[in-house]
Amino acid sequence: MYRTAFSIGPLFSVASRWLPPLVAHGRGVCTIALAIVFASLFGSMGVAQTTDGQRMTKEFIPGEAIAMFQVHPQAILQDPALRLAPIEVISASGKHHVGVDPVDILAVRVVIGMPGPGGPEFGAVVTLEKPLEIESLNDKVIDRTSKREVDGKTYYSIPDSPPNAVLHQISPTQWIVGTEYFVTRMLSDQITDGPLAHLTSQTVDNGQAQALIVVEPIRPILSGFVNQALLQAPEELQDLSRLPELLDSIELRYTAKTGFAGDMTLNASDDVSAEEMELVIEKTRLYGRDSMLESIPLLLNEEGPVADSMRAYGVRLVNTLFDMIRPQAKGRSIVINTSDIQVDVASASILVGLLLPAVQAAREAARRMSCQGHLKQFALAVHNYHSVHKKLPSNISDKEGKPLLSWRVSLLPYLEENELYSQFRLDEPWDSAHNRPLAQRMPELFVCPSSPQIPGKTAYQVPLGKGLSMLADNPLRFRDIIDGTSNTVMIVETSPEWAVDWTAPDDWTYDADEPLAGLGGHHPGGFHVAMFDGSVRFVTLAIDPTLWYQLLTRAGREVIEGF
């Protein structure tokens, strides 16, 4: 077994991922699923009556099934622990959208098969406390005119849903909905036991919510998914790619008898696989713990007794939480038992509240560093361009000197964008029928990480004005930067509102009346500039206007002080 705590967050995440596709494929299926979703979400919030010791039946599980999810909505929704939950809203929504009160649902069993040409095959059996007549169902759920008989069973289509979605009444208190092929397989008298049916019959029903998955049929798919997810993962996590080969089945359970806890059981195919799986999980657990411990000082860079106490609490909380999920090998299973440990959610929430400003500050610091990196690459590209062409880059112009394309396009070969550069027609303007579509292929380097992305727009511009920047009537060289490359601004970071089409020969124009107009907005308090020496600096919006102008001129012969 492998057990770990979970609550409403992950379930809500799953719902938010799967509900949009359901809506896209048909409102009928979505409305039928509404009561199930509500019950599933709130099933992770309270204690439910259990049927400990009673094994689940293998009813409705064909041999080709790969996963089964079962939940008991009534037991969950009627629990006193949910006295503050919006039960009335859930009840009314179920009645309005489906015609069924979720409180009357005793059990929902969802069975999933291998994906077919038309998508995943599935069926959901809903067992009610009271008989439900077909007339009670909402018209959005059932197309009564589509009634047809197949092998002595009556099926109905579902409005605004895929053509293979059907609804069938098994008995006065039991209905099934799903893809037609899989529904007929679930109802077949000729069902043959498969690995999932066998696993289900050996599993105790906890009376709340649980899921079972057999790995063998989906091993190649699971391996591909895990390997793809690990492409950008640290080296310490790469051993997780072995899990699909080691696993035989997965069991998920929710139990709230002793607090917000859950069980995940990872069953290995043999003893050797179980030992290797334990090592992989333990290595991952330790990496997660150490990574969180290392981040605490970074999130709290303040000094003093209060900051010290927050760091100490963070360390204690992280160590406690990770101690709760320590794996133990038991036969061919890996066990992490949290059922007897109460997670103090309130305390954890307090820590989150205390750390949130620090986390936001850390994120902004990371974005600033990334933005600085972008400008450094621009500066390096300018230097490389100068080394090759013996001049600074300029706008691409026609024979009469009319600018056609930006200096940013000239730099593409020096930013590892040769392929994109070769697509431009350099004798046509940036907005020609050929060149205009290329603007949508703007490299990520041209975007400040802190700015809202505007397709084809960049905030990285050169300052325009008499005696400013590297753009001039005649080509310039570094030797023309008389004020010194470390004292002269080469590229500025404008506000999002002043962003320009990156391929257009447009840039930021200096205004003596409003010398800082259009600058800043990406980072609190100021903006970045790249100097001609290749360095990147952060300029505050409180900079002296005279000093700012002196930094912009390339040959003003000023003495720069205080920067």
UniProtKB/TrEMBL annotation:
Pfam families in alphabetical order: SBP_bac_10
InterPro entries the record matches: DUF1559, Pilin-like, Pre_pil_HX9DG_C
Domain spans labelled DUF1559: 360-506
Name of the protein this chain belongs to: DUF1559 domain-containing protein
Organism per entry: Rosistilla carotiformis
